[in-house]
Amino acid sequence: MRPTHPRIIFGLHRSRHERRLLTRALELGIQAIDTSSNYLGFQSHTTLANVAGDLLPRLTVSTKVGYFPGAQHSLAPDHLRTAAEQAASDLGREPDVVFLHNPEHSLIEAARDDLLEAACSTLADACAQGLCDRWGISSWDPRRLVVPAQRGLPRPDVLMARAGLLVSADILDAAERLAERLRPTELWGMSPFGGSTAAAVWDGFDSRIFLREPRTSTPIQAAFRAAYRLPSVGAVAVGTDNPDHLGELTDALNLEVDDNMIHQYRELLRTRSQPA
Ligand SMILES: NC(=O)c1ccc[n+]([C@@H]2O[C@H](COP(=O)([O-])OP(=O)(O)OC[C@H]3O[C@@H](n4cnc5c(N)ncnc54)[C@H](OP(=O)(O)O)[C@@H]3O)[C@@H](O)[C@H]2O)c1
User: Fold this and answer.
1) Does any domain span residue 14?
2) Residue of 100, 104, 192, 252 with fewest CB within 10 Å of its CB?
3) Distance 236 CA to ligand 1 centre (A)
């Protein structure tokens, strides 16, 4: 599947939650932000409402539930329901999308596959009751999110998985298998730079080899654009504290990816992941 209109979601995981960044995002045509109940020390929702409450109606807001103060993760329906209610209250508006945040975390510890079904149903019910518009699953490690075939899980609106050149073959494969199994309406990518463009890996090669016309971009822009094909996603959640960087990311959406190079890269990753 080749997305025709790639979109940017401004991710707030590592962001300072400054109004000027949200204003710049809107100026650039970025209409979506992604946060979580646990971002900014569990203060992300209230901070957003305080610094940019008037901007929030112009943005599509996705958030996540699953982590609770005290470094606890839970898929208990009453915890998730309370967190969804709290999100709407703290933001001052219902979020557009509420994700289960890394559900694999609790599933591994509890080893009970009925937990996922109950958690998904809780978010689907929350949407049906007007607490959110859509619901989804955001999984950092989809290898650990095995959904038994016999389970009748509600179909999520959105699945969000890691995207980009730094994602390993087994995680890419697992995300695609999960998408096939769950059949979400949309697949989003996240963390296209693995959390930092200052990491040494980005100095080691020129990502512009993944573009049809390499001369028109920077390596960071090329890496960002390539992330929409690894795996194939319609939107990518990316973080920055620099308004100029937001502009560079927006410009990168016009770049054309060389699908043949992406295919070769996937093959290379798969070969590398085979045991010697
Ligand atoms: N499990 C989950 O649900 C989960 C996990 C991780 C992430 N996410 C989502 O994905 C979003 C992004 O992921 P992430 O925060 O891990 O990191 P990321 O987007 O992979 O990388 C963020 C880093 O990229 C740099 N950057 C961005 N644009 C740049 C540019 N044009 N030039 C140079 N550097 C640039 C930023 O530095 P500057 O500040 O200097 O620009 C920042 O340090 C999160 O905010 C969140 O919404 C979800």
Assistant:
1) no
2) 104
3) 10
Pocket around ligand 1: residues whose beta carbon is below 6 Å from it? 11-14, 34, 64, 101-102, 138, 140, 190-197, 220, 237-242, 245, 248-249
The answer to whether position 21 is within a domain reads: no
CA–CA distances in Å: residue 2 to residues 209, 233, 242: 19, 8, 29
Dihedral sign, CA of 192, 195, 197, 203? negative
122 and 116 in contact (C-beta within 8 Å)?
no
Q: Number of folded domains in the chain?
A: 1
Low-confidence ranges of the chain (pLDDT < 50): 1-3
Q: What is the DSSP code string of 249-267?
A: HHHHTTPPB-HHHHHHHHH
* Predicted confidence (pLDDT) per residue in 105-116, tens digit: 988 765 566 889
Angle among Cα 177, 97, 114 to the nearest 5 degrees reads 50
Contact status, residue 121 vs residue 81, Cβ threshold 8 Å = no
Distance (Å) from CA 67 to ligand 1 centroid:
20
Domain that holds residue 130: 27-273
CA atoms within 13 A on the CB side of 123: 34
In a domain, 87, yes or no: yes
Give the up-direction half-sphere exposure of residue 260: CA atoms within 13 A in the CB hemisphere: 2
Query: Quick one: pLDDT at residue 146?
Result: 77
Report the CATH number at residue 202.
3.20.20.100
